[in-house]
Specification:
single chain; 346 residues; alpha+beta; eight-stranded mixed sheet; 7 helices; globular; binds flavin-adenine dinucleotide
Amino acid sequence: MLDYIIVGSGLAGIAYAETLLQNGKSFKIFDNHSQNSTLIAGGLYNPVILKRFSEVWNAKSQLEIADNFYKVIEQKIAIKLDYKIPIYRKFFSVEEQNNWFIASDKPKLSSFLSTKIILNKYNGIHAPFGYGQVLHSGYVDTAALLEYYHKYLINNQWLIENTFDYTDLQIFESHIQYTNLKAKHIVFAEGFGMHSNPFFKNLPLNGTKGELFIIKAPDLNLDVIVNTNVFILPLGNNLYKVGATYHWYDKTSKPTKEGKQELINRIKEILNCDFHIVDHFAGVRPTVKDRRPLLGTHFKHKNIHILNGLGTRGVMLAPAMAIDLYDYIENDKPLDRAININRFES
Ligand SMILES: Cc1cc2nc3c(=O)[nH]c(=O)nc-3n(C[C@H](O)[C@H](O)[C@H](O)COP(=O)(O)OP(=O)(O)OC[C@H]3O[C@@H](n4cnc5c(N)ncnc54)[C@H](O)[C@@H]3O)c2cc1C
C-alpha cells in the first residue's frame, strides 16, 4: 500500500512529491505532458503586484518557504534553479516615480521596494526616468526543474509517464485503487487539465492563456529583469525571455499570430535596439475566479484531494501550498478558508 498517488507533475505535483519525500511517505506520480504551464513559465517570483502596488498575498512567508524548497532541490538534483536577480520597474514619468515612493512607505511594502531611483544605463533601453528596484525577487528555471526533477523521479521509479484515466479509479473507505496500485490518498494536481477530472471539474478554474518569446538581442546588455507591461529576463548569450500575454477565451496551448504581434508591440515600447524571435511558446495558467489556490478534500470522498489554482504565481505558491495541504491531510491542521475548496461548496 502506497501512501499517495499524485496526478500531474508540474510545479504543484513536484512540490507535493518533495513534501512527501521530506516526510518519509511513499508515492507514485503520473504525468502525460498534456499541459505545459510549468514548462514554459517565466518563472519570476516577485512579492509585489506592481500594477496596483500591493503586496502579494502572504508574500513574506511564501518567499521564505520557497527559498528553502528550491535550495533543497538544487542540492538534490545538482542543478542551479533559483536565480536571485533584481526586478527593475521602468518609470515612464515623474508621477510614476512619486507613486513608487508612496508605495515604498507602506508598512507591507517597505521591505520589498527600494527607495533609491536606479539610473543605470542599459544599451537598448531608453529610461530617462530610471527604475525602481524590487527586493527579494528573481526567477526559477522551471524548465530545468521539470527536466531534472523528472529524471530524479524516473531513476527512483516514482514517475509513471502515462495518462491517468479517471474511470479506472476505485474508491474504498480506507484507500483507493488504480489498476494495480493501492494508496491511502490521491492528490490531483493537473493544472488546467483539471477540467477532465470528474471529481473537481466544477470548481471555478477559469484558466488564462499566456504567450512568451525567447528573443536574441545582441545590442542589449541587461543583467537584471526589467518589468513594465512585459518582463525582459536575461538568459545569457544575448538571449532574453520576454512575456507574457493574458487571454481569457482561447484555452489551447498553441502560440497565435495575435499573441506574437502583441508581444512585438510591447517589446518595442521598451527596447530601441534590434532583436529577433528565437522561440514562441504558449500555455494556460491555472487561474481561479477569486485568485486564490484550490486546496482541500472532495466533499464526499475523504481520500481524494486537490492541489491546484496556482494561477500566475506558481513558483512562489507551490512549496507553501504543498506544505499546507500535507499538514491538512496528515496532521489535521485546518486550511485557511481563502484557499480551501469548501469556499465554493454552495
Ligand atoms: C506564459 C506563462 C507565464 C508564466 N509566468 C510565470 C512566472 O513568471 N512566475 C510564476 O510563478 N508563474 C508563472 N506562470 C504560472 C505557472 O506556470 C503556474 O502557476 C504553474 O506552473 C502551475 O503548475 P501546475 O503544476 O498547477 O500546472 P501544470 O504545470 O499545468 O502541470 C499540470 C501537469 O499535470 C499533467 N496532467 C494533467 N492531466 C493529467 C492526466 N489525466 N494524467 C496525467 N497527467 C496529467 C500535465 O501534463 C502537467 O504536466 C506562467 C504561466 C504561463 C502560461
